[in-house]
Amino acid sequence: MSMFLDTAKIKVKAGNGGDGMVAFRREKYVPNGGPWGGDGGRGGNVVFVVDEGLRTLMDFRYNRHFKAQSGEKGMTKGMHGRGAEDLIVHVPQGTTVRDAETGKILTDLIENEQKFVVARGGRGGRGNIRFATPKNPAPEISENGEPGQERELQLELKILADVGLVGFPSVGKSTLLSVITSAKPKIGAYHFTTIVPNLGMVRTQSGESFAVADLPGLIEGASQGVGLGTQFLRHIERTRVILHVIDMSASEGRDPYEDYLAINKELESYNLRLMERPQIIVANKMDMSESTENLKVFKEKLVANYDEFDELPQIFPISSLTKQGLSTLLDATAELLDKTPEFLLYDESEMEEEAYYGFDEDAPAFEISRDDDAAWVLSGDKLEKLFTMTNFDREEAVMKFARQLRGMGVDEALRARGAKDGDLVRIGKFEFEFVD
């Protein structure tokens, strides 16, 4: 089984806030002691941290659920509960985090030790010391802790490399990587020898250095999933320069120029932005007898079919086997990298504008529906949060919740929908009778 994994779907759950406490001072010499219940502690966040030592998302194959600890409950003597520690989850560089439900990108983690909070812990509930007023100096009201954020995430790893090697299978990409870097990719005389991306560092004779990724071979229809398909095309997206490796000997009976067009078509079909990246054509296997003539024909076709206003890509004849022309190719690649800027990976429309953990002001505070048993069902984020944070073990808290519902307009809305005295009203699994 391959130990390389570049996609994963996981669930994260931040910690709930601790419940507030109802307590009273009972010292012998403190008359009318009053409330003394403390607040609950904050729930732990779920935080992604980039670890440059990780190379794949393999850790998420078997561990798909991440749950932070909840805060401690409030205590007597006005003491607050302890806040929970954040749950730290390590991810490799180049990990894109997407909300699985909305498809929006939350963050793109590319810097070592970069941090991002993917789920916020709930705040602690207030103890009864917070509810004391001149009219009610001894309240028996406390809040439950706020629930922590819960969401499903899609992780996608796009390896960090300056240069990407692309081309048909068996054109010599892995051999080229092995002779210009210290990488040891698998090399064989058959298609799809490379089934995972390989990464290596190049140092030119002039002292320049850059990272090169050897990607599994592409074939026609790759952008639609043929062969290894889109499984590894994503890794080209972070590269700034593409080395398009072509078997100029035509050893497998294909036309080199048709190969060039076919691969570019697949790149364009997968992501049009890939065509913005400058390409260098690497005419490989020039040690073969037919290669020189094929290269001459290739150049003629390239010039004949290129728009006169477009700049022709550079062509470098090399032989990975004999190491012919490698230093010239690497120097030209380093020079092209120096003047090629970083490419924007995502549109603003793909990104979440801002991680917001409150309520949407435009969203309705509640919704009313009818269940199969004729019960009225109340739902809505704001209403459900108030319900969750209400301590129904205390009568005062229940009355406070009833006043909050009335203030939100729930009573009037139910009457307008036809609710009558004694009708069943349901919030989640909690049921009560409507009193007109």
Radius of gyration: 32 Å
Determine the structural class based on helices, strands and strand pairing: alpha/beta
Secondary-structure element order, N to C: EEHEEEEEEEHEEEHEHEHEEHHHEE
Distance between the termini: 66 Å
| Biggest pleated-sheet summary | 6 strands, mixed
| Overall pLDDT confidence | 87
The order of strands across the largest sheet is: 10-11-9-12-13-14
Number of helices: 8
Net shape: elongated
Uncertain segments are: 188-195, 222-229
> Percent of residues in helical segments?
10-25%
Which characteristics define this entry?
436 residues; five-stranded mixed β-sheet; six-stranded mixed β-sheet; single chain; alpha/beta
In brief, what are we looking at here?
The protein is an alpha/beta fold and 436 residues long.
Structure, described:
With 436 residues, the chain is an alpha/beta fold. Helix content is 19%, strand content 21%. It has helices at 59-62, 173-180, 256-270, 291-304, 326-338, 381-388, 395-408, 410-417; strands at 7-13, 46-50, 65-67, 87-91, 95-99, 105-109, 115-119, 150-157, 163-166, 198-203, 209-214, 241-247, 279-284, 314-317, 367-370, 376-379, 424-427, 430-433. It has a six-stranded mixed β-sheet with strand order 10-11-9-12-13-14, with helices on both faces. Strands 3-1-8-5-6 form a five-stranded mixed β-sheet, with no helix packed on it. The N and C termini lie far apart (66 Å).
Blueprint of the fold:
Elements: E1 7-13, E2 46-50, H1 59-62, E3 65-67, E4 87-91, E5 95-99, E6 105-109, E7 115-119, E8 150-157, E9 163-166, H2 173-180, E10 198-203, E11 209-214, E12 241-247, H3 256-270, E13 279-284, H4 291-304, E14 314-317, H5 326-338, E15 367-370, E16 376-379, H6 381-388, H7 395-408, H8 410-417, E17 424-427, E18 430-433
Parallel strand pairs: 1-3, 2-4, 9-11, 9-12, 12-13, 13-14, 16-17
Antiparallel strand pairs: 1-8, 2-7, 5-6, 5-8, 10-11, 15-16, 17-18
